[in-house]
Amino acid sequence: MNETEALHYTGFEQIDDRLSYMSGFCSHVVVKLGAKGAAAMKDGLQTSHSGFSVEAVDTTGAGDSFNAGYIYGFLTGLNVETSLLYGNVCGAMSVGAYGGSTGSPDREGLEAFLRQNKDQASDHRDVI
To answer: What torsion do the CA atoms of 37, 2, 65, 125 make, to the nearest 10 degrees?
Structure first.
């Protein structure tokens, strides 16, 4: 879900409070934070990853693209931090093109974006 949805569901202002609350109902929660990145709590461990600085031309489908990247990472056995990274890459690439799926990458496109943005990809600053 996104941060606005998490606020509505929990009533908490701070993202870490939202994650903590929701983790009482499930073991794995992810909240998208738009350009700021995303945060997750899995099995009581909170992780976040900052977003990428890109020029946004259309945000249509960015959340769905993030979901695709995160779920790809998760289903291929990657850790939460890498799954967040993949989600953020897919969201960043999505907003760089018009339309809901035009900017969505395949595996090769995801890896190329990471190579071109390696400084931002390794930036794990606290986004919460």
So the answer is: 10
Which residues partner with 37 through β-bridges? 50
Whether 31 and 15 have beta carbons less than 8 Å apart is answered as yes
**Which residues neighbour 99 within 8 Å (Cβ) at sequence distance 6 or greater?**
58, 60, 61
What DSSP designation does 77 have?
T
Write the DSSP assignment of 20-45 as a string of letters. Answer: HHHTTT-SEEEEE-GGGEEEEEETTE
Q: Is the pLDDT of residue 22 over 80?
A: yes
Catalytic residue set: 64
State both tokens at 45: 């461990």
What is the Cα–Cα distance from 127 to 58, expressed in whole angstroms? 23
H or E stretch including 111?
helix 107-116
Report how far residue 46's alpha carbon sits from residue 57's, in angstroms, rounded to the nearest whole number. Answer: 31
Least confident of 14-28, 85-99, 110-124: 110-124
Q: What is the pTM of this model?
A: 0.91
